[in-house]
Amino acid sequence: MADLFMLAALGVLISMAGALWRAWRGPGRADRMMSAQLIGAGGVGLAVLIAAAREEPAILDVALVLALLAAFAALAFVKTVTVQGAGDPESEEDPAP
Amino acid sequence: MSLAFDLALCAFILGAAALAVAGRNLFGSVVFYIVYGVLIALAWLSLGAVDVALAEAAIGAGVTGVLLIGAWQGMKEAGALEDSQAPPWPVRLWAALGAALTGGLVITAIIALPGQDGLTRTVADEQGALALGNPVTAVLLGFRAYDTLLETLVLSAALAAVWSLSPERVWGGIPGPKHVSRPDGVMASFGRLLPPLGLLVGVYLVWAGADQPGGAFQAGTVLAAVWILIVLSGLRDEPRVSSLPLRAVIIAGPAVFLGAGLAGALAGQALGYPPGYARTAILIIEYALTVSIAATLALLIAGPARRLS
Amino acid sequence: MSPGELLITALLALGVFFYAAGTVGLIRFPDTHSRLHALTKADNLGLGFIVLAAGLHWGDAWIAGKLALIWLLALFAAGMAAQLVARAALKPEPRE
């Protein structure tokens, strides 16, 4: 059973290679950021798979932290399209600088 | 199967590192560095170092991304992205020499490591005296407590250094821009939804740290991330850096640690714990450190004061 | 192989399939917004199957709860990121 989980982990890891390619090519910054998101989501899955393969519940805490912080970089990124990085891309007008 | 996974992971880490350094696009390099953080956390997991993996997941995948993207934003606004040109070759030569020297030192250190077990057995033998289940916490707060004490002091000193960069007219003011978000928009909702869960995870990590992977630094980083999220989503502003309660929170951890060390010195051994009370003393230090590390990291990311209100 | 193991194997295969689908979408789709929609949906479906497989393998209620929390957090993160990155990508991007 442990080998099966590690085989799945290898599969997820290989599928993450495409994200590196997209992060390299871009073209937009949003595309690059999405690649980081994909690798973050893959990391959560890999941590769960390694935890199951070794039956070590403490490893799940790493998956928990990765999942909790998965959107932080994306949040910082979306703020960069607003003035001084202080706004919200959903607001109609940006705050005065 | 584990070996195949480890080899693929190594290839990935090297690839992400090479792309982060080789890229012409600065934002692309930032993205590769964030990716590298996630992969390194997985590598520590695969090596069985769950404590380090937790710290790397919180720092590398969470907080560093916010810091680097903020730095990129600052460079863009200062116009430093347009006139970026390749550094002259002496600079590159020195950088290459420095990197080669550091790499050589690391390789030498790894080759010089004692056999398979290192100090694992010694720690396991002595760990019972501190009544802690987690050997990493036993080393960090017991056997090598002076290392950890100095590290927490380094963090506080780094924050003092960052604050000292504040311009005179905003001295003691508020760091960072005033963040706003659309009321009840996605960003504000996320900023309200995640902090309670983040708080729970942070408290859990420091509570778990005594007997299983976790501890003050991991928990403090998660709590710092929660703080940063609340600020970024415009729900609360950063405090004034001159605020006395804030400064008390920042030095509380190192002060408690130092106090315990001095009390030990008066009783016979600096940074020693009285027999039978080691676990209690270490837990008090851990909780105090968690709060201080959280505040210090969050304010380090926020940077020097930029405005008065 | 017992029926339980067969089920776990099938769930893992589905999980890896959806992760791979997310990556194929990220590579093949023509523009940023289509890629975003491939990525945030497929990946979290894959994670859901993997979490189910791990939960069945462990067969422990506390661990199942923690796994569910991990998946929920990943869903929150992906939902927020999808919405806001889509908005951010609408703004024209000046060349560097």
TrEMBL record, chain A:
It is a multi-pass membrane protein. One of its GO terms (molecular function) is sodium:proton antiporter activity. It is found in: Cell membrane. InterPro entries: MrpF/PhaF-like. GO terms for cellular component: plasma membrane. Keywords: Cell membrane, Membrane, Transmembrane, Transmembrane helix, Transport. The keyword Transmembrane applies. PANTHER family: NA(+)/H(+) ANTIPORTER SUBUNIT F1 (PTHR34702), NA(+)_H(+) ANTIPORTER SUBUNIT F (PTHR34702:SF1). Belongs to the CPA3 antiporters (TC 2.A.63) subunit F family. This is Multiple resistance and pH regulation protein F. The lineage of its organism: Bacteria, Pseudomonadati, Pseudomonadota, Alphaproteobacteria, Maricaulales.
TrEMBL record, chain C:
The chain crosses the membrane at residues 6-30, 69-90. One of its GO terms (molecular function) is sodium:proton antiporter activity. InterPro entries: PhaG_MnhG_YufB. The keyword Membrane applies. The keyword Membrane applies. Keywords: Membrane, Transmembrane, Transmembrane helix. This is Monovalent cation/H(+) antiporter subunit G. It comes from Alkalicaulis satelles.
